[in-house]
Amino acid sequence: MPSTAIVTGASRGLGLALARSLGQRGWRLVIDARDLPGVPDGLAGQVIALQGDVADPSHRRALVEAAEGRVDLLVNNASALGPTPLPRLADYPLDALESVYRVNAVAPLALVQLALPLMPAGARILNVTSDAAV
Ligand SMILES: NC(=O)c1ccc[n+]([C@@H]2O[C@H](COP(=O)([O-])OP(=O)(O)OC[C@H]3O[C@@H](n4cnc5c(N)ncnc54)[C@H](OP(=O)(O)O)[C@@H]3O)[C@@H](O)[C@H]2O)c1
Which of 6, 15, 17, 19 could form a disulfide linkage to 77, CB 3.0–4.6 angstroms apart? Predict the structure, then answer.
């Protein structure tokens, strides 16, 4: 049975590059993005592409269910930068801050909690972060 990876935010950028690389190595992939009408060009092998927002609990459940019982790698790559240019914390709109935390902190942890029971010994979790701050 091929190894299975969940890679969030894999319609472009780092997530897509990572998914392409894993696909070329025979991994089965579950990927997402908010705007993902189908499997992106250049993705080889078994790919399940789910359109949705990692901040949405039902979408997160769908991602893990699509892995069909086994997650060898979870990559929390999708993230939100928030308002740009980045405001000082003194001026940061709190509703925007809550939204950033839901995507960047709560969603990755929630996916970890859902995926852990399906992760065999040796499986890995990769959390991609940013040091963008003011
Ligand atoms: N690029 C940099 O210079 C840099 C530097 C430091 C760290 N990073 C980190 O590296 C990671 C990837 O960066 P990147 O530059 O490759 O990003 P990117 O090109 O902007 O791609 C982000 C991906 O995540 C998806 N996404 C965003 N919000 C989402 C959400 N709420 N739910 C599901 N999917 C979502 C996007 O698709 P949709 O918009 O369609 O949802 C897209 O597929 C991020 O975590 C970022 O913070 C990047």
Answer: 15
Between the CA of 71 and the centroid of ligand 1 the distance, in Å, is: 21
Ligand 1 centroid from CA 108, angstroms: 13
Look at residue 70 and give its three-state secondary structure.
Answer: coil
pTM value is 0.97
Q: Is the CB of 103 under 6 A from ligand 1?
A: yes
pLDDT in tens, 68-100: 999 999 999 999 999 999 999 999 999 999 999
CATH homologous superfamily, domain 4-127: NAD(P)-binding Rossmann-like Domain (3.40.50.720)
